[in-house]
Amino acid sequence: MIEKKYAEDELLSLSGIQHFHFCKRQWALIHIERQWEENLQTTEGRFLHERVDNPFLKESRGDVVLSRAFPLVSYQLGLYGVADVIEYVRSENGISLPGYEGLWKMRPVEYKRGKPKIDERDEVQLCAQAMCLEEMFNVTINSADFYYNEIRRRIQLEITEELRNLVVTLSDEMHNLFKKELTPSAEKSRNCKYCSLVDVCVPKLTKKSVSARKYVRNHLDKACNGEI
């Protein structure tokens, strides 16, 4: 049995790895400093997930069984979360499924509001889900699927060794920052205009690694004193 790398009370939110890849500061504001703001992307994203997350755990569609809102955990990555949908596809090799005959292969499906991104933020989240399932069920998952609501179609993701290594690196960095309670410095980028926390982050104000609360307070103090 492989020794657990992280304990139960050290687990971080799996969905945060997407925020972390997009912007480490955004992740820290949400998960370390507990800041949160709604924008169109987050509102529509929640609505789409609420349609997926329903109390009916399993449904059958021929040789495919769907399990919704499936809990995930990995003690090697130190992550926990919920998969939108797990598809069990009938196969000659796989795992047994209570209430169903035969063997089944698992495939996570992640629902997204928009369209495919130019970076890997979605990919690392889905790969992390697959790695959780591999650890939980002692299986190998070579591919997973996205469903993008804006283009209304599925896109397959190959779970490569390179992508797995990136997930491990990102999760280790997340734990390191969380343990130190460190919020990375603010830097202006093209991602800022799409960020739901841009008004909290205000990256034009500082490049120092300080907490959002502290530098916003300092900025307000300067404003009150007529320094800015």
Secondary-structure topology with pairs:
Layout: E1 12-13, H1 16-22, H2 24-31, H3 40-52, E2 58-61, E3 64-74, E4 79-91, E5 95-97, E6 100-112, H4 121-137, E7 143-148, E8 153-158, H5 161-180, H6 198-201, H7 212-224
Parallel strand pairs: 1-4, 6-7
Antiparallel strand pairs: 2-3, 3-4, 4-6, 5-6, 7-8
Helix pairs in contact: 1-2, 1-4, 4-5
Task: Describe what this molecule looks like in 3D.
The protein starts with 11 loop residues before the first strand and ends with a helix. Mean pLDDT is 83; it is low at 51-56 and 222-228. With 228 residues, the protein is of the alpha+beta class. 26% of the residues are buried. It is globular. The chain has helices spanning 16-22, 24-31, 40-52, 121-137, 161-180, 198-201, 212-224, and strands at 12-13, 58-61, 64-74, 79-91, 95-97, 100-112, 143-148, 153-158. It has a single domain (8-181), classed as Lambda Exonuclease, Chain A, CATH 3.90.320. Strands 1, 2, 3, 4, 5, 6, 7 and 8 form an eight-stranded mixed β-sheet that branches. It is built from seven helices and eight strands, in the order βαααβββββαββααα.
**What structural category arises from helix and sheet content?**
alpha+beta
| Uncertain stretches | 51-56, 222-228
Count of DSSP H/I helices? 7
Count up the domains.
1
Overall mean confidence score, pLDDT:
83
Strands, total number: 8
Strand content: 25-35%
The biggest sheet, with number of strands, parallel, antiparallel or mixed sense and barrel status, is: 8 strands, mixed
Radius of gyration: 20 Å
CATH domain class name = Alpha Beta
- Supply the CATH architecture: Alpha-Beta Complex
Anisotropy-based shape:
globular
